[in-house]
Amino acid sequence: MPSTTFRLGSRTLNLSNMDKVLYPDAGFTKGDVIHYYLSIAEVLLPHLKDRPITLKRYPNGVDGMFFYEKRCPSHRPSWVKTKMVPSRGKDGRIDYCLVNDVQTLTWIENLASIELHTLLSKAKNVQQPTMVVFDLDPGPPAGVWDACRVAIEMRDLFSRLGLQTFAKHSGGKGLHLVLPLNTKVTFDETKDFAKAIALLFEKNDPARVVHLMRKDLRNGKVFIDWSQNDEHKTTVSVYSLRARQRPWVSAPLTWKEVETALRTEKVDAIHFEADEVVARTQKMGDLFEPVVDDETETPARAELISRGIGAAEGRETGDRSWFREHAFASRAA
Ligand code: ATP
Ligand code: MN
Question: Which of 45, 76, 102, 140 has its CA 20 to 30 A from that of 224?
Fold first, then answer.
């Protein structure tokens, strides 16, 4: 197997099969994958830092078989950092790779780890999510523009409560809406909170939104997947490539772009490939930068969470009307 020695800072890596085509339709090779990740590393690495990662590996390209790899491969170089996380599995632990530097990033990409899936928490406290994620999945014939509509309504709700949210394309079919926290909170709280929001949106617009995962309920609607807010679940990282037909990326979007996509239904305008994402980042910087360490600890959040939990549990208190009134103030006006 052809291999190249690659010197990167203080480390030497052996890279193999750089010419192997991993995306046949695009002629995108393993060398191109590594080149993309090296080009985006500066903005990507802060999002991966100290986060247990699951590698989704495609040794024979996007059309071949793939596997999720939670355990950091045992043949790793000695300098690759790992974090042991207790697990329910057979030996009771998983040593996850931590991708904190460009050398580790290059090493995992040499293993054809096209997609990077991270926990919503960091290694030092895997029980504390650093963000809330709403995974917006359009069920055909609903399209990503419908997910844009929901994302905008959610942004408006959160913004009235003084909370800033960020949108990215999943790189696949839908959108991800992220609410940074970076404060002391538990998955129980964030999951309840996300569920309450999803339920609220479903109740407000049942023809277009659904909060249950069942596929048959999704036709023509946007499924707000709140259940991703779980200690054991991963979400594809911002700037990760997706193993689809073309080297599409889970790319951060401006709200203006999301609004335009909703208005025009031109979905290509928010679905970016590797080279476009590198160019955008050079121009726009990292649109997701505040997600890394912006701290959200506001009275509004605490109030929303407690009232949200009430709504999720279906408690018929004054809470729900308060919640609805605030959530959809602009419509009522
Ligand atoms: P799309 O927009 O096409 O839905 P997505 O990345 O949001 O893309 P989902 O199927 O909605 O894909 O799943 C959300 C997240 O859950 C993924 O990004 C991934 O990290 C995780 N996930 C989904 N399926 C699995 C699986 N079988 N094993 C491990 N993680 C998974
Ligand atoms: Mn999704």
Answer: 45
- Mean pLDDT, 10 residues at a time, over the chain (333 residues)? 89 96 98 98 98 98 98 96 89 94 98 98 96 97 97 92 92 97 91 89 94 92 97 97 98 98 95 98 98 77 56 48 51 37
Is the CB of 173 within 6 Å of ligand 1? yes
Question: Shortest CA distance to 260 belongs to which of 152, 155, 175?
Answer: 152
Question: Taking a C-beta distance cutoff of 8 angstroms, is the pair 190, 200 a contact?
Answer: no
- What's the 135 CA to ligand 1 centre distance in angstroms? 9
Which residue, judged by its Cα, is nearest atom 25 of ligand 1?
234
The answer to whether residues 149 and 201 touch, using CB atoms and an 8 Å cutoff, is: no
Q: Is the dihedral of CA 75, 76, 79, 84 positive or negative?
A: negative
Pocket test for ligand 1, best of 54, 117, 238 (most atoms within 8 A of CB): 117
Domain coordinates of the chain in residue numbers? Answer: 3-119, 128-232+249-332
Shared fold status for 3-119 and 128-232+249-332? no
CA of 201 to the centre of ligand 2 (A): 17
Ligand 1 pocket residue status of 296, Cβ below 6 Å: no
Q: Which of 115, 150, 170, 242 has the most ligand 1 atoms within 8 A of CB, as the residue to mutate? A: 170
Q: How far is CA 97 from CA 55, 76, 108, 234, in A?
A: 9, 9, 9, 14
pTM: 0.93
**3-119 classified as CATH 3.90.920.10:** yes
CA distance 43 to 48: 10
